[in-house]
Amino acid sequence: MMKQIYIVGVSMTKFGPHLEGTIKTLTKEAVEECLADANVPIANIEAAFFGNNAQGAIEGQVAIPGQIALREAGISGIPITNVENGCASGSTAMWLARNHLLSGQADIVLAVGAEKLTFAEKEKNIRAFKAFEGGMDIENLEGALDILRDLTKGHEFEEAKGHRTVFMDCYAQICRAHMIKFGTTQEQLAIISSKNHENSTLNPKCHYNKPFSVEKVLESRSIGYPLTVPMCSPLSDGGAAVLLCTEEGLKKLGADVQKRAIKILSSVLTSSTAREWDDFENHLVRRAAKQAYAEAGLVPGDIDVAEVHDAAAFGELFMSELLGFCEMGKGGELAASGETRLDGRIPINPSGGLESKGHPVGASGIAQIFELVTQLRGEADKRQVENAKYAIQENGGGLLGVEEGSAVVTILSR
């Protein structure tokens, strides 16, 4: 039987522009708050995994970013592993941390994600937008986009426009294909966006804390049909951290820490395969979810709260289907029914999601874990999901073919 691994500490900085901040300061803040949450001395950490996606491309720090950032936080001399896996970098760092514990090499391990995407210098901001292209096959970027364009061949849509990353074009193309196949509507996307922005007003750590009505979402500036600005995540700065331990590690900690510990029931990392877009059973998130549910001994109906990767509102819609909360093609109807709201059957993105919380790429996955742990502990204040016992996280990274290049699905319980 697999050993039980626990989460005993979590943290996230406020996401948003930190023009005076650096990877070092964001990492230090996240680490200190995580250790304070767990009431664990820094000397107890036996290994660390550091998730970051773009510092090398933007600032030139192409090697040992974790060793450099974590030394500023007081961590050195232990095994430190640097992790880059697109937008799933932070989640992959936690996946590796869990596996390190399962291997028996340590009892208390830290996973950290940090990203700096906004700068006072114009040149660095340009590099930040350009860095997103590195999440695709850079040698065949136009060909990669052509694969997505072919999904809607013969159908006319408004051209993409305005200030955006290449991934918003990708989301728009896949969303259009979903609309053609299933009849998904722009209004359903606006309902998701409005719900997440409403949730953000209850989360002071979000980049944005502003409500948007469905009508306001639809009236906002288009960046290429069907997406409008409020439907898409902003570029943000931020850090997040999670402290994991084994049963033996938990015994070394105080009773108060043990009471607040959260179990990791399963955590699955997958990568993309060559497939037809509408072969949904072999979508990497569907495959990861099936394995995660099986390892946890649960089914989708057991889940009480979810955090999913909504770099655009369509991401939440699509993931709600792939995680099994509804039939394929019914994600828009699920959102419109109100069942994904805080008081609904399956609340999704109570944090406000990436659309509101922001998307500091390397930190985003661990920030999802922060939200779910907070929910399972019953400490989410006005956005608390009632009686939350089981939670699921989905975090994807990059694009290869017709799906993400990597994805992590994790299931937690109190």
Topology:
Elements: E1 5-12, H1 23-38, E2 47-51, H2 55-59, H3 65-72, E3 80-83, H4 89-102, E4 108-115, H5 122-131, H6 141-149, H7 166-182, H8 186-200, H9 214-219, E5 222-224, E6 227-228, E7 238-246, H10 247-251, H11 255-260, E8 262-271, H12 284-296, E9 305-307, H13 313-322, H14 331-336, H15 353-357, H16 361-376, E10 390-397, E11 406-413
| H/E element sequence | EHEHHEHEHHHHHEEEHHEHEHHHHEE
The helicity comes to 25-40%
Strand content: 15-25%
Class by alpha and beta content: alpha/beta
- Low-confidence residue ranges: none
Mean pLDDT: 96
Number of strands: 11
Termini distance? 19 Å
Radius of gyration: 20 Å
Give the neighbour order of strands across the main sheet: 3-2-4-7-1-8-11-10-9
- Annotation field: number of helices: 16
Q: Give the CA-based shape.
A: globular
Protein model, in words:
It is a single chain. The chain is α/β, with parallel strands linked by helices. It is 39% helix and 16% strand. The chain is built from 16 helices and eleven strands. It has helices spanning 23-38, 55-59, 65-72, 89-102, 122-131, 141-149, 166-182, 186-200, 214-219, 247-251, 255-260, 284-296, 313-322, 331-336, 353-357, 361-376, and strands spanning 5-12, 47-51, 80-83, 108-115, 222-224, 227-228, 238-246, 262-271, 305-307, 390-397, 406-413. The strands form two sheets. Strands 3-2-4-7-1-8-11-10-9 form a nine-stranded mixed β-sheet, with helices on both faces. The protein has a two-stranded antiparallel ribbon with strand order 5-6. A hairpin with an 8-residue loop joins strand 10 (390-397) and strand 11 (406-413). Helix 1 packs across helix 3 (65-72), helix 4 (89-102) packs across helix 16 and helix 8 (186-200) crosses helix 13. The longest helix has 17 residues, at 166-182. The protein is globular, with a radius of gyration of 20 Å. The two termini are 19 Å apart.
